[in-house]
Structure formats: structure tokens, C-alpha cells
Specification:
3-stranded mixed β-sheet; alpha+beta; 2 domains
Length: 143
């Protein structure tokens, strides 16, 4: 990506994110976070990768609703961004779901569960060891 397309991508991402946050009224796209923008070298189109901050991330019908909401708002978003940015040609806006945030959250949850399970097993093993040796925690502290 050239410097120009990187600059355009950055400006587009900021402006479209602002429009989504401040001007968009469609409830389907209220919890959308833009994660990345790829702009074609000829500025013919820009692909916005988005994530959804919602409890329904696993629900494919909820993701479809968000996608339909973004698709229907694309022309509005393009017009508003064109007013704010001084570009000779405003790229066509396209949207693709980015599962990386949802996968990262899920991975962290699994790691947290694994850590809690290991802590529970370690505490249980310590208690079993004391029971079998006939020693108490107080005896361990004296030693």
C-alpha cells in the first residue's frame, strides 16, 4: 500500500467511524467497530473490516442483520464522508466481518477457565497431600 492509500484509508476509517457513532440511526449498526480499511490503489473502492461488540457475536442471524444494515447505510456513509474529506474520487464502501476480536475474546476466556481449573486442581492436590500425611496447614507453616 502506498503512502497515499494509507493516508486515505486512515482518513476514511476515522470519518466513517465518526459518522457511525454520531449520525447513523440504524439500530443494527450501533455496536460496530471498524478494525481495518483496505483502499484500492486507484481509490475505486474501500473495504472496511468490522467487528461487533455484542452478546450475539456467535449468532449468525445477528451478524447478517449487521451486514445488511451496513450495506444499506453504505451510500449514506459515502455521501457524508465525501462532504468531510477532500478527495477527488470517493471510493465505493464495502464491508466485511472481521472475527479476530471475537476469537481473541473467546481465546482469553478459555485461557482464564484453564487457569482457574489448574488453580483448583493444585489446591485440591495440596489438601489431599496434607490429608495423606496427617499434617495440617499450621504444621506446614511451622516447618
Amino acid at each position: 500500500m502506498s503512502r497515499r492509500t494509507e493516508k486515505v484509508a486512515s482518513q476514511l476509517k476515522g470519518e466513517v467511524a465518526r459518522i457511525l457513532r454520531e449520525e447513523a440511526t440504524d439500530p443494527r449498526i450501533r455496536l460496530v467497530t471498524l478494525t481495518r480499511v483496505d483502499v484500492a490503489p486507484d481509490l475505486s473502492h474501500a473495504v472496511f473490516f468490522y467487528s461487533v461488540m455484542s452478546a450475539d457475536v456467535e449468532d449468525s442471524s445477528a451478524l447478517e442483520q449487521v451486514e445488511h444494515g451496513l450495506h444499506s447505510a453504505a451510500a449514506f456513509l459515502r455521501r457524508r464522508a465525501a462532504r468531510a474529506l477532500s478527495l477527488k474520487r470517493m471510493p465505493e464502501l464495502r464491508f466485511r466481518y472481521d472475527p479476530s476480536l471475537a476469537l481473541g475474546t473467546r481465546t482469553l476466556g478459555l485461557l482464564r477457565e484453564l487457569g482457574n481449573a489448574q488453580e483448583g486442581q493444585a489446591a485440591h492436590a495440596d489438601a489431599d497431600a496434607r490429608t495423606h500425611t496427617g499434617r495440617s496447614e499450621a504444621d506446614d507453616e511451622k516447618a
